[in-house]
Structures are given as structure tokens and as C-alpha cells.
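Revision sheet: C-alpha cells.
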Amino acid sequence: MSLLLCHQCLSWTRPRNSRCTICAERVDLGARDPSFEELAQKIGAIEHTLGVVSFPRKLLPDLGTVYVTTNGFIFLPHRQVQEPKLVTGNSTGSSIFWIVAGLAFTPIGILTPFLRKKKVERKIVPVLHPVRLEKEQSDRLPLFLMNHPGVLFISLETVGSIKKKGSWWFIKRKFGGVLRFRMLKRDKAFHHNMQQLLNIDPWSQFRA
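Predicted:
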């Protein structure tokens, strides 16, 4: 069965016995989806950005940005864009000659890797870009959630505790298991911002 959006916890899930595998609420396939207004009310408005993290999951994007909203966290996966890039490779025409010459003359064989011509080509390759939103763009969050199963909303009401261990942050939920976010070496803002968040209410109650 394909992923469905649970109208109760707003998680994308594969229902088991017609129930959400996260919150165990019944998933009605015939029920209408929540309106953007209803989703916006549940998600809340963006307060600030926590940072870019790795969020390991099966068959779903793992790199994304975590935002704090008035009602919880929301993880927005990086968007993939096809962009032209210059790619360098060996020129096959000249390399054959140098390989044959290298077999016959040992000194040339030593120099072969350095004498081959490099071929530069322009190719279209997939590139990941973070989704950057300002507070004034909070109305876009419901659209992201409805259109992308990789988006994850974590309601403040479902959070049990938050703790850090090494380069990982663990968010223990009251149901649905523990979520793990790993800080990236090139972007340590997430750690600093999370520490600051846990010093203020209502988030301070979750510090483990």
C-alpha cells in the first residue's frame, strides 16, 4: 500500500489494519483531506530555523532543514534540481595510445596517468538544495506536507523528551518511537540552535 497522510498526527504512513502505524488512529481512505487552512492551524507558523540535518529513513530523503513552528517541528527535505555541471574525465582516444606505450616502455608506463588528456563535458546532473523559508512564508508549509511524503511534522503535544548524544539528537515521542537527527560537520548551527531552544518555554520541559 502507498503512503497516506494520517489526518490525526499528520504523519505519512502505510496503514496497518486500517490504522496509522505512528499514532494508531483509524485511517479512513474515503475521508476528505484536511484543507490548507486546517493544516496551517495544526502546523503553526514558522518561528525560526534550527538548521540542516541528516535524518536517516528507509526509502525517503534523509537531508533536509528543520524549522521550529508555534506548534512543533517540521522537517523539509532538500529539493532536487537538474543543473548543468562541467564533468572531467579521461579522453579515451589518447589513453589507448599511452596504455600501449606504457606496456612497451616502463618509464613511460610510470608517467602514463599524468600524460593522459582530460576531457571536460557539460552534463545535466541532480543537485540538492535546501528549502529556505522566512516567517512570512509559513502558509507554504501545508503545501509541502500535502505534496511530499518526505516532509515530517512533529507536534509539540507528541514530544516526550529531547536529548543529545555525540553528533546525534534524539526526539522521543509519546507514540511512534524515537526520531534521530544527525548534525552535519559543515553545518553546526543545528546543535547551537537546539540548545538555545531547550532553554526557553515550552521546550525546556523536554530536556532529558
